[in-house]
Amino acid sequence: MKEKDQHPTSARTFYTSVDVARRAGVSRTTVSYVLNGNWDGHVSDETRKKVLQAAEELGYSTHSSARALRKGQSDAFAMDSLLNRSIRCC
Known about the structure:
Elements: H1 3-6, H2 17-24, H3 28-35, H4 45-58, H5 64-71, E1 77-80, E2 85-88
Antiparallel strand pairs: 1-2
Helix pairs in contact: 2-3, 2-4
């Protein structure tokens, strides 16, 4: 047995919306509708409950860095100390 197999790491496992979709037995699009609050008219109450339960069981939470990569921008701000003004960053 390899040494790394003998000593499990304490690294935390992060789950994605794909994992939630697999757990709930629905599409990733459905998970997106539910977790972004846009489920009304797109997803039944029963399916919404399944998605929320799956997300809770996995301990799913959104990751700001992953969202920023997907959007192509972050919500970070920088301070220009020379001009003493705020500017939008990234």
